[in-house]
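Task card 7
Instruction: Convert sequence to structure tokens.
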Amino acid sequence: MSPLLTKVLPLFVYPLGAAILAGIVALALMRTRFRRAASALLALALVGLWVAATPLFADWLTARLEAEHPPVPVAEAPGADAIVLLGGIVAQPLPPRLTPDLGDAADRILQAMRLHRAGKAPVIVVSGGYLPWEAGVAPEAELIADLLVELGVPRAALVLETGSRNTRENAVNTAEVFRAQGWRTGLLVTSAEHMPRALAAFRAAGLDMTPAPADMRATYPLYESVLDLLPDATALARTTAALKELLGLFVYRWRGWAQEHCLSPSHQTRRRMISEAQRIIAVPAPLLPGEKIRFVSPASTPDRDDLEVSAELLRSWGFRVDFGANAFRKLNYLAGTDEERLADFNSALRDPDVRAIFATRGGKGSYRIADRIDFDAAKRDPKFLVGFSDITILQMALCKNGVAAGIHGALSEEDWHPRTSPAGSSLRELLTTSEDVVLSARADEETSVMTTRGRVNGPLVGGNLDMVATAAGWALPRLDGCILLLEAVNMFLGQVDRQLTMLRKGGFLSGLAGIALGRFTDFKPSGSLTIPTFSASTSANSTCRS
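Output:
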């Protein structure tokens, strides 16, 4: 379908066009025996136009779109390879204008400039061309670029994509730019009400985008006075713009141009849960063949031969593997001094060539360095941290500081290998896909009987019980709305009881959506009390919902 038709046909769906069309039909019917139907149609058109033109309805419809991706302070935005700024901002400098005319969406330009000035990305990709009937004028991307330069953005930091005529082409053409440059992540800047459709289109084009919305139009409270119930031309324009986004999203999904869209209450609830419970703002991208994994030893010293076997398995999966400078050092029960272990860990976080970090083993000592992680580097370039046992506290500290990077995974080749355990297949899938991965309970584990009816949604966090308890009060993220995973090694029942009681009485378990019990290896029961029977006997005292 031509761009002209795609611009003209929807006009008859929007309130003003639909009311005019209904009025014409009603007038035609007045000359027939269907006069009552004509009167009803005309009344319906007028009432619909009135409602659509009220500020209350315009704000409600706009807020429904904008609430999907609320604004985030520039300081809290994650780092990315590039900022992507969409057009639809300026009008051509046609006579008698001397300069481009800024539209309502001009806030996008300021948002992109602020993100660049804050160092969130070194480059701004400006995407916007011109429509066929605008031949002979400059592409919008060039006009926006001139304005960014006026605001102090170096022209060398601008990449122009000038061929796009709509959001779909914005996404496809920008994806080509990203592939040509080898970029992986981007901050998408557009109006908040346009973000659901734009983000869905960019993700469908294979781009890893984080929304950075601007131009918030709906404000609260939605109703302030009786004037909000009276028709207003500006409100009618805003209603039309919101309907355009909803209609566009429907068409994009029908054509397969949009990967996803979440406006249902259940999805909004889940998004708020993640935002409020953890403030996750940085998530690693899936690993690609040929990318590098680094082994570091934040805790105790590994066995070199065992680790070489594990490294060879990862190479067989198509990854490059190297080791931290102090990975095999030994200082009593630690793999070197705190400074050496911390240096290796932070070096891996800062190295752009490293795409995932594997802890060589657990043991002891990660808790000594968890508060000194380079969290800024982790946010700028998030990468997976795979480990369990003592490594849990590093994963919790990252989570508390806004980086969802932890994979609570086994560390030995025996546990990884897909021929001996499904854990290997799950780990590989978690590393290489952005799709949901299903983890199933193992029937041969004692804790597998600990289940209940019902269904919950929430971020899965946690790990080693001893480290979760150790992190409480300084490295433990907020757990409201989360599903807490707990496992332990070589613990007596009294130790489990003490740590759970401390967490519960300290209020750290309040508001949990659920608890998932993992393996309690070498657990020491007390008489007839095992983990399942102990958990059942104490669940009534818990403040969480399992």
